[in-house]
Design brief:
Elements lengths: L9 E4 L21 E5 L2 E5 L3 E6 L8 H7 L5 H17 L2
Antiparallel strand pairs: 1-4, 2-3, 3-4
Length: 94
């Protein structure tokens, strides 16, 4: 078994660590995982047979906008489109 996936995440088999003591979170892409956990900058995804683990550069609980800019920048175009659309809808009602 390879212990690093194609995105650079470390894969930890559940046989090594069967339980996760951190609280589940909704922050982050699920990418097919059953649950996700965060502990500071640590982001953990739970799959059937393993955990996928990586560190974010910015803790999304402490700095959500910084996290989007640095660790989740692919969402910026969508956020900009929502902003433009909401501005359009608000101004069209006037």
């Amino acid at each position: 078994m390879c212990f690093v996936d194609n995105e650079g995440n470390i894969l930890v088999p559940k046989t090594v660590r069967p339980l996760m003591e951190y609280k589940p979170t909704v922050l982050g892409e699920k990418k097919g995982s059953k649950k996700q956990y965060r502990h500071g900058k640590l982001h953990i995804r739970e799959y059937d047979d393993c955990y996928s683990v990586h560190y974010d550069k910015i803790d999304p609980h402490k700095d959500p906008f910084g996290h989007i800019l640095v660790d989740a920048s692919k969402y910026i175009p969508g956020i900009m489109m929502l902003s433009v659309l909401s501005d359009y809808l608000i101004n069209s009602e006037k």
